[in-house]
């Protein structure tokens, strides 16, 4: 069979498959061939032999990829070797495909094993995360129990947890937690009151809510008194308040006289008797505040003189006995700070109750809503100020 005739037969066979799928080139009919395939190969009419003799060198993956079937290979072999050659090629192709399947099976098995390992590691991570959550929950419950025990025994547990300090009352940290809870409860009560006012509830229903809020104010004054015994400076400095609230702070709280001025415009219309009562209450509150402020100024002046008197002529402290005596006097004067704070809170508490007695129940409800909204906006102003963009 000459080369030209063989090429024509090959071209007829290639009509059954895409020409661009594969090109099998045999360089010699009687020796083992080499397989060359190129997707960009363009067939040219040249005189060369295109017959496949040995299938053992043709990968099964190449046959599958380029749609070369065993029937096509048999047809090629029949051109050169006859029917016997086709049988040999079919058997060889079958053996080759079996051998090629094994690496593919191993690859699939290896991938499945990797997936199983990844799933196992994921389950372990999930289990560890759940255990961590449970451990954190137990620690939180333990801390809450310790905090409750500290409240009952009057012991302040330090933040490091390695030591406890016995105190006559709750510590600063405990008060901060109590104040946070007090605020949450007050928000609930105010929301309930606002709903009742908007729904035009009866006076008896409003009175129950208003009395509950007033009792809640009494509770915060009690908590401040207990905390002042442990750390009066913490309460006076207002560290439990927002920065904007601290700016308007007076002796650990609000000025009753200033609050009454704000409420008068919010409670209109008022009767002449109510206006007179609120005016007198505002004036008496102002006088009490002035007296307490003067007392604080006198205390600060006296304390400064006491500390300055302990200095020697050269600016250093004198003898130890004199120094200790002066410091003892200063400590005694600082003890009056708690008394000033208690009087200021009593003034605030009495002002609220007297205001309630002057107003009707609906006016008192509106007054409590106005007070809460004022301090809420003050806290919001503080948050906005801290979050402002800085250049």
What's a quick, concise take on this entry?
By secondary structure, the protein is mainly α.
Outline the structure in words.
The chain has about 400 residues and is mainly α. It has 2 domains: about 100 residues, no CATH class; about 220 residues, no CATH class. About 70% of the residues lie in helices and about 0% in strands. It is built from 13 helices and 2 strands; from the N terminus they run ααααββααααααααα. A two-stranded antiparallel ribbon has the order 1-2. Helix 6 runs antiparallel to helix 12, helix 6 crosses helix 13 and helix 9 runs antiparallel to helix 10. The chain is flat.
Specify the overall morphology.
Answer: flat
How helix-rich are the residues, as a percent range? over 70%
Strand content: under 5%
> Structural class given helices, strands, pairing?
mainly alpha
User: What's the arrangement of strands in the largest beta sheet?
Assistant: 1-2
Task: Give the helix tally.
Answer: 13
User: Sheet with the most strands?
Assistant: 2 strands, antiparallel
Number of strands: 2
Question: Overall pLDDT, averaged?
Answer: 74
How is the secondary structure organized here?
Layout: H1 3-14, H2 60-65, H3 70-80, H4 83-153, E1 155-157, E2 164-166, H5 172-198, H6 203-230, H7 232-237, H8 243-247, H9 256-266, H10 272-309, H11 320-334, H12 336-358, H13 361-386
Antiparallel strand pairs: 1-2
Helix pairs in contact: 1-3, 3-4, 5-6, 5-13, 6-12, 6-13, 9-10, 10-11, 10-12
């Amino acid at each position: 069979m000459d080369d030209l005739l063989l090429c024509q037969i090959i071209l007829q066979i290639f009509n059954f498959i895409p020409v661009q799928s594969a090109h099998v080139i045999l360089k010699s009919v009687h020796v083992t061939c080499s397989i060359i395939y190129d997707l960009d190969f363009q067939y040219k009419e040249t005189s060369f032999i295109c017959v496949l003799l040995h299938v053992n060198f043709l990968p099964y993956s190449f046959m599958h990829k380029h749609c070369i079937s065993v029937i096509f290979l048999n047809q090629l072999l029949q051109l050169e070797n006859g029917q016997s050659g086709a049988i040999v090629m079919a058997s060889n192709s079958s053996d080759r495909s079996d051998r090629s399947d094994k690496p593919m099976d191993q690859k699939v098995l290896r991938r499945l094993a990797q997936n199983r390992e990844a799933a196992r590691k994921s389950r372990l991570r999930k289990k560890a995360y759940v255990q961590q959550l449970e451990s954190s929950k137990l620690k939180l419950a333990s801390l809450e129990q310790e905090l409750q025990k500290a409240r009952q025994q009057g012991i302040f547990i330090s933040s490091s947890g390695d030591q406890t300090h016995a105190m006559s009352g709750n510590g600063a940290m405990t008060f901060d937690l109590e104040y946070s809870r007090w605020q949450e409860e007050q928000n609930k009560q105010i929301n309930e009151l606002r709903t009742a006012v908007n729904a035009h509830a009866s006076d008896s229903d409003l009175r129950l809510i208003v009395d509950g809020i007033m009792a809640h104010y009494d509770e915060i004054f009690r908590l401040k008194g207990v905390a002042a015994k442990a750390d009066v400076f913490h309460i006076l400095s207002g560290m439990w308040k927002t920065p904007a609230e601290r700016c308007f702070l007076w002796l650990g709280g609000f000025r009753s006289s200033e609050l009454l001025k704000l409420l008068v415009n919010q409670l209109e219309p008022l009767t002449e008797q109510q206006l007179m009562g609120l005016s007198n209450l505002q004036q008496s509150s102002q006088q009490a505040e002035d007296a307490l402020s003067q007392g604080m100024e006198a205390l600060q002046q006296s304390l400064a003189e006491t500390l300055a008197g302990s200095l020697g002529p050269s600016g250093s402290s004198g003898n130890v006995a004199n120094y200790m005596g002066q410091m003892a006097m200063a400590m005694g004067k600082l003890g009056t700070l708690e008394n000033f704070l208690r009087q200021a809170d009593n003034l605030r508490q009495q002002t609220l109750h007297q205001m309630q007695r002057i107003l009707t129940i609906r006016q008192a409800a509106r007054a409590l809503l106005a007070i809460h909204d004022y301090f809420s906006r003050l806290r919001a102003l503080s948050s906005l100020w801290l979050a402002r963009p800085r250049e």
